[in-house]
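User: I'm preparing a small set of examples for a lab meeting where we compare how different chains pack in three dimensions. I only have the primary sequence for this one, and I'd like the structure in token form so I can line it up with the others. Please keep the answer compact; I'll paste it straight into my notes.
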Amino acid sequence: MDDLADLRTPAALPAILARTEALGFPMPSEPRTGAMLRVLAASKPGGRLLELGTGTGLATAWLLDGMDGDARLVTVDSDPAVQAVAREMLGDDKRLEIVTQDAARFLAGQTASSFDLIFADAMPGKYERLEEALALVRPGGLYVIDDMLPQSNWPEAHAANVPRLLAELAAHADLHIVSMAWSSGLVVAVRH
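Assistant: Understood. Below is the structure token output for the 192-residue chain.
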């Protein structure tokens, strides 16, 4: 089975990819991860979604493509230069709020149990401030992370962070978790 065959991509994706490559942005989301995000977003009709780490908006485009008209997505990044691509290509979508802010500061200002899906693709909310991010997930809500398999752009000492993060997630009795050695390495958790 070819999991990329006949993959319908979001309309804005080719332009975002071209801009991402032109910028030399080293951390683009993988298409299979995007396809999974689209499916998960579609499972939350009318939901409130959060993306930590907009980057250039690749995953943002996939999330929006899965959302219904009543769902809302907040995407946060501290780098206005790369986030400008997402703002230009996706900013007209009324379901989207683009926040340029440190994700740790953003997390600290949120209300508990306020999101139906969180895609944590930044250090804050994933390797840092994990508990703050998890506290924002509603019962029945999803917490999603990627890049759990070795990546060429990881800093030298980063590999040791992955098993530590997975152990922290596994210690949560209120989460059902599945880890997948697929795409860039995904973890999907649901709060029960």
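A couple of notes for your slides: The first helix runs from residue 13 to 23. The helical segments are 13-23, 31-42, 58-66, 80-90, 103-108, 130-134, 161-170.

User: Perfect, thanks.
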